[in-house]
């Protein structure tokens, strides 16, 4: 069985073109999973529309493409249109096309993982994120044809539950949906379970074992619900940011959470419309086992999951050859710590890469030393005044928080002396160079000896992402992979 269509969302035209190019390169490997692959670009709005707004637009486009066949089809929608601010190695060409240690992309692994879901689901739409992988047990069962919504959930500890959507159950059925609830609310709504995920928390066992709640993984909506959402998006102009989890699913269950409609007027008006669609929906609840949900939203998470014999490795990679040097060319003199990962790099002149490093798309021109805890990615850019591609290497520490605005920023050991509140994403730190080799060398040098000079053009990460030259990036990757295949013959 094949998906009728797999849809990726893109935040702009450059990302859309890059995704389409990469899908084309993977066409032979993907053809056994779906009849069609589409990339839908988020329409321009003067504000963010979020994953919820993107979902409404995707459903409208799918209905326009498939017409009467829409109600008989099975679609997979992967939200992949972000800038990956917490995983900057993916900011240029997207998380969904990063490779795993088995040299398969996240896209390939997702469609492979969801094949069991596809075989059991009724016509409808599966909605998921691009930076997660879920382990689906072979003996898992679901597929009640009367269900309007199928929710997949996994057990999470209390710290994680307070930052995500939580499903409150009664007698095994969905009672209420919470969004980023406090510990007090988790307790008062009986959302917590003890360590075996079956017993309710009571006064007697509260301190006896670690506590868990069921948090959102991914979900399926029926063709009827999908049609209603497409109609809603068509008749109502988007005027705020919506989430395809919190805003869409918050109205499910027997009891509505008090916080669902306690929000600003714009979001509230949308939630009322969504409530009319989801309120009386029949819900099937599917529990995934522990250690089945893996998030790759940050560099630390990626390195953790990519380690040999990690929980993720044991779930997904035990039958395949493991690499922490992924689709890369390295000299025999190169030493790479086992806790580090390099991907699509050309280190033909040799390198010594320390512990817990993450390198993507870098190329050196001489022996290179990379200290512990470094994130590095070289991105081709095209400035308006330049006919040729130029290069910027982003060098960061594994623990850097790129989105946080601060009065006093530090970059490695350097006080950046910023005069206003700004984030590492927005401050110009990274030199523009004529070649990939020079770019890597200069950025590494500057993280040790940072000094602003009039003759060096510095760009922020935001600048680099806006100026990215996806054609040049993908051309380098294609040439490197082709060379690796030639060498391996």
TrEMBL record:
<keyword id="KW-0808">Transferase</keyword>
<dbReference type="GO" id="GO:0016772">
    <property type="term" value="F:transferase activity, transferring phosphorus-containing groups"/>
</dbReference>
<protein>
    <recommendedName>
        <fullName>GDP-fucose pyrophosphorylase domain-containing protein</fullName>
    </recommendedName>
</protein>
<dbReference type="GO" id="GO:0000166">
    <property type="term" value="F:nucleotide binding"/>
</dbReference>
<feature type="domain" description="GDP-fucose pyrophosphorylase">
    <location>
        <begin position="68"/>
        <end position="434"/>
    </location>
</feature>
<dbReference type="GO" id="GO:0042350">
    <property type="term" value="P:GDP-L-fucose biosynthetic process"/>
</dbReference>
<keyword id="KW-0547">Nucleotide-binding</keyword>
<dbReference type="Pfam" id="PF07959">
    <property type="entry name" value="Fucose_pyrophosphorylase"/>
</dbReference>
<dbReference type="InterPro" id="IPR012887">
    <property type="entry name" value="GDP_fucose_pyrophosphorylase"/>
</dbReference>
